[in-house]
Amino acid sequence: ISLCDAVNFLVEKYALVRTDQxxxxxxxxxxxxxxxxxxxxxxxxxxxxxxxxxxxNNITLGKHPEAKQ
Length: 69
Prior knowledge:
This protein is mainly alpha-helical. It has one domain (3-68). It is built from three helices and no strands. The N and C termini lie close together (11 Å). This is Toxin. Pfam families: CbtA_toxin.
């Protein structure tokens, strides 16, 4: 299971609403996140550098070797 799938499951289960989009409202766009949203959040918080972009992307998409155990 990918990080996106896990987070989106929680979004749907608890009817969570995104507040990160300018001019957001509950009915205008999807509340679900994608891998780009996670990468942007990691970059904004300083958790991602150029050297580990591919690793972070693979984990986010559920493709990391350790994620398949």
